[in-house]
Specification:
379 residues, alpha+beta, 3 domains, 3-stranded antiparallel β-sheet
Length: 379
């Protein structure tokens, strides 16, 4: 989507270079503001009641309102000011109101706004509102104990500089950077630190498994709308960097308890040790023999809430390449990590793919034998 439409809820962009991403994040910072207000001063209003007051002949605002009409159809009023509401802001608004549940989704828009407003009126304390590119993107708790702002551009710059200084040969992975209004992500290769994979390569040799072109990598994800903390994920690139394997064991920093950029720098210092721990968990899968790989794949991915159509694609590809004979959990974990590729082909957004990738890493700590069952299974 063109950057001129960055206001759109569905906006998503990828970045070929680190410099391109930094420039973009700098512009986003200038197009954003944070305001602090009493929670009880907030009111949700259906867009149709406020659209006339917001347009004022402003062509850009007209486009913003058209996009809002396609999504939340809501405006947030704050003591005389009114702002269209972005999809990613809804959960944080409900959080400030102290309300949630499936029942809300069944209400018509006017009743929905009325119910939320009744709860907002009774709420105590202040909130911290993020307004970005013409819309409300989040409404956080107003105390630094509740929410700490960690600037995306500063996080990206510190990551790049730290890796350049402490991991020889580290480099931004071309095209890995993504941004939408929920989350920002980027990846760096750590090709100059092959010793990070020594334990894993030794395990592969013991089990006679051939894996070529292995490259350690690190993924950064962060969000300023409560979709994610600042997370560092050990990653593994295979097949000439064409295949990405998430190793789990993220190093996380939550946006609360007065967190600062210095806390994040301390987390960066843990990358080396955490990477080695993560590869040990992956290597442990080599010891788990699976006798019914198709059933195990289907049942485990269902447990991880991977959609049926994607599960079927993964299983079909695995059987085509390997057949249905006994294997190891290690083989199946590699296969499962093809799921984000198929999801991307189905139009999943960048943030949805990241959540899927994160869910898949849960398999590293699960009991694979529980899913290694014989016979027909219903999935």
């Amino acid at each position: 989507m063109n950057e001129t439409m960055v206001y759109a809820d569905g906006f998503e962009k990828t970045f070929a270079t680190a410099e391109e991403m930094l420039d973009f994040l700098s512009r986003r910072g200038k197009a954003s503001e944070w305001i602090r207000k009493p929670i009880r001063a907030l009111r949700l209003v259906p867009l149709e009641k406020e659209a006339g007051n917001l347009e004022n002949g402003d062509e850009e605002m007209e486009e913003i309102l058209k996009d809002t009409e396609k999504h939340t159809r809501l405006v947030l009023k704050v003591r005389g000011e009114a702002y269209p509401v972005r999809n990613c802001a809804i959960q944080t608004i409900l959080g400030r109101a102290g309300i949630g549940g499936d029942g809300l989704r069944k209400l018509d828009l006017a009743t929905y706004a009325k119910v939320v407003n009744c709860c907002l009126k009774a709420a105590k304390g202040e909130c911290l509102i993020k307004i970005a590119d013409g819309k409300v993107s989040a409404v956080h708790g107003g105390d630094a104990h509740d929410y700490s702002v960690l600037d995306m551009k500063a996080i990206f710059e510190m990551t790049s500089e730290y890796l350049h200084t402490n991991f020889k040969g580290s480099a931004y992975l071309e095209g890995s950077g993504t941004y939408d209004h929920s989350v920002m992500s980027a990846m760096w290769t750590l090709s100059g630190n092959q010793e990070l994979l020594d334990t894993y390569r030794d395990a592969l040799d013991r089990y006679g498994v051939s894996r070529k072109n292995l490259t350690p990598a690190l993924r950064l994800t962060t969000s300023d709308v409560a979709a994610s903390g600042v997370n560092l994920y050990p990653m593994l690139l295979t097949d000439g960097n064409n295949r990405t394997l998430s190793l789990g064991s993220p190093i996380t920093l939550a946006h609360r308890n007065h967190s600062t950029i210095l806390d994040y720098r301390n987390n960066l210092k843990e990358v080396y040790a955490r990477y080695k721990d993560a590869t040990e968990r992956l290597a442990a899968l080599l010891e788990i023999e699976i006798h019914n790989p198709v059933n195990c794949l289907r049942l485990l991915m269902k447990k991880l809430k991977i959609k049926a159509a994607i599960r079927n694609e993964v299983v079909e590809m695995y059987v085509a390449q390997n057949g249905e004979q006994a294997c190891t959990a290690h083989d199946l974990y590699y296969a499962m990590n093809e799921a984000p590729f198929y999801a991307a082909c189905q139009g999943f957004t960048g943030s949805q793919l990241l959540r899927m990738e994160e869910n898949l890493t849960r398999a590293l700590a699960m009991d694979w034998k529980e899913f290694d069952v014989y016979g027909a299974v219903k999935c």
